[in-house]
Design brief:
Blueprint (H helix, E strand, L loop, with lengths): L2 H17 L2 H17 L1 H12 L3 H22 L5 E3 L9 E9 L2 E5 L7 H12 L3 E5 L5 H14 L5 E3 L4 H9 L4 E5 L2 H10 L5 E4 L4 E5 L5 H13 L9 E7 L3 H13 L13 H16 L3 E4 L3 E2 L2 E2 L2 E4 L6 H4 L6 E7 L2 H9 L3 E2 L1 E5 L3 H10 L4 E4 L15 E2 L9 H4 L1 E9 L30
Parallel strand pairs: 3-4, 3-6, 4-5, 6-7, 8-9, 8-16, 9-14, 13-14, 16-17
Antiparallel strand pairs: 1-2, 2-19, 10-13, 11-12, 15-18
Helix pairs in contact: 2-4, 2-6, 3-4, 3-6, 4-5, 9-10
Bound molecules: nicotinamide-adenine-dinucleotide.
Length: about 450
């Protein structure tokens, strides 16, 4: 389908879809959840084949998608009109309120690293809010995303959900088209290009990261190593909130690194670690490792791959200006820097153009909270990593990692429309002819009532 054709279909479907009751739209989403259950095995296999995930990671995407449907079906019911108060004496007979209404046609552009669950984080709240959608998935996950399109179109009225397939040029076309709001998840490079092209349209940007992983001297080493290995090498490290920079306190650094290397060597190819998405990503990972080694870093394990598999890699003797500590690597690489104190870890962690997430590991939760308050990121985990709120609610980062929003996802899919209603029979005191100030004590107005 062409972008313009999709826009037209989505625009035509909007009036009917948006006029349904929320309960009716929830029923459609329930049907989607049932279809996901029925086709779980099939979808899992498609994801495994197409983006190289181990079975458990692929199946988790389906389970996560169903949890999102459940979550947003509850959240949408909480949306209510907001009553606004007027001073009865100054503005008699006045009613005011804000309604929350759908934007219209939502454009959604996504990456390949979570081909099902990530788009669903937006598709479901956007549909429940009454929007229609044009979906432009990654060119590297078209099979999985064709499946989403098939399932959604089995349950939804024609034109409500439309998919266009292609690469970045098609993405640009969608950005410039007559959509009413864009949700984009992807790289910083594409995010910057979108900001040049989008014009005056609301946009949500969820971009790349370089998350710090701070290990205090009182951390539970065993738990922390396990959290780090999963958080840095799960999905081959191709995760926006993967642990990409480790800052470990010098008092436990030696033991911590020894443990880390031992466990990293025990990860099983195929069962724990799948394949990377493509050669381009492998080359990027290799180039970051090469840059680090040329500047003095030591490879303690891994460092190479075979085909699309890349070994979990631990690097030490790392310094903060190496690419491995400054650029998003998006691979199963764990570079470790030893730090003197929490303050030094905080300062290193904040010294980054990214601001997506960060994790802190300490047996003292209050210490973790204090460190977390000083980190300039959108998401903090203490003794945990990459656990989203259900449906990816309140996900997002600061600085180059995106346009962090203080709104829930449902509210990001709605726009406000305010109503002010005058129920009096007399003209307002401040309308023509002038003479009477609005308020006797309103110092902002001249005596002749000529306003400010
Ligand atoms: P990418 O930016 O190359 O592509 C993402 C999507 O945008 C694709 O559909 C692509 O076709 C499209 N696209 C590319 N350039 C575009 C442009 N100029 N205009 C419009 N569309 C364009 O990213 P990727 O390699 O697919 O995904 C990996 C990136 O996504 C990483 O940086 C990762 O951190 C980020 N990501 C972020 C989050 C988050 O929530 N913050 C989640 C997942 C992935």
């Amino acid at each position: 389908m062409e972008v313009n054709e999709a826009v037209l279909k989505a625009k035509n479907a909007f009036p009917i879809w948006s006029s349904l009751s929320v309960e009716e739209r929830i029923e459609y989403m329930k049907k989607l959840s049932e279809l996901l259950e029925k086709e779980k095995a099939d979808i899992t296999e498609i994801i495994m084949k197409e983006v190289g995930k181990p079975e458990i990671e692929a199946e988790t995407e389906v389970i996560d998608a169903q949890a999102s449907i459940n979550h947003y079906s509850n959240e949408i019911l909480k949306v209510d009109t907001k009553k606004m108060e007027f001073d009865e004496e100054a503005f008699p007979d006045t009613e005011g309120y804000v309604e929350f209404v759908p934007f219209g046609v939502i454009g959604l552009i996504t990456p390949w690293n979570y081909p099902l669950s990530l788009p669903i984080w937006t598709i479901v709240p956007a549909l429940l809010a009454g929007n229609t959608i044009i979906f432009k998935p990654s060119e590297y996950s078209t099979e999985a995303d064709k499946k989403i399109n098939e399932l959604l179109n089995k349950v939804l009225p024609d034109g409500v959900f439309n998919t266009v397939l292609g690469g970045d040029e098609l993405g640009k076309e969608l950005v410039k088209s007559e959509i009413d709001k864009l949700f984009f998840t992807g790289s910083v490079k594409a995010g910057k290009d979108i900001m040049k092209n989008i014009g005056i349209k609301p946009v949500s940007l969820e971009l790349g990261g370089k998350d710090a992983f701070i290990v205090c001297e009182d951390a539970d080493i065993d738990l922390t190593v396990k959290g780090l290995l999963w958080g840095a090498t799960g999905n081959c490290g191709q995760v926006c909130v993967a642990a990409e920079r480790v800052y470990v306190n010098k008092k436990i650094a030696e033991k911590f690194v020894k443990n880390l290397v031992k466990e990293a060597k025990g990860l099983k190819k195929g069962k724990d670690i799948g394949d990377m998405i493509n050669e381009v990503q492998i080359k990027k990972v290799e180039s970051h490792i090469k840059d680090a080694v040329s500047k003095g870093a030591k490879i303690l394990c891994g460092g190479k791959g075979e085909g699309l598999f890349f070994e979990p890699t631990v690097l030490t003797n790392v310094s903060k200006e190496m690419k491995i500590m400054t650029e998003e690597t998006f691979g199963p690489v764990i570079p470790v820097i030893v730090v003197e104190s929490d303050e030094e870890a905080i300062s290193f962690a904040n010294n980054s153009k990214f601001g997506l997430g960060a994790t802190i590991w300490s047996k003292d939760i209050e210490r973790g909270r204090k460190i977390g308050k000083k980190l300039n990121v959108g998401m903090i985990w203490i003794n945990d990593i990459n656990l989203p709120f259900e449906g990816g609610d309140y996900w997002g980062g600061t600085k180059e990692s995106g346009l962090v929003s203080s709104e829930s996802k449902v509210m990001q899919c709605l726009k406000k429309k305010s109503f002010i209603i005058y129920k009096g029979k007399e003209k307002r005191g401040w309308w023509y002819p002038y003479g009477m100030p609005v308020l006797q004590d309103d110092k902002r107005r001249d005596n002749d009532g000529q306003g400010l």
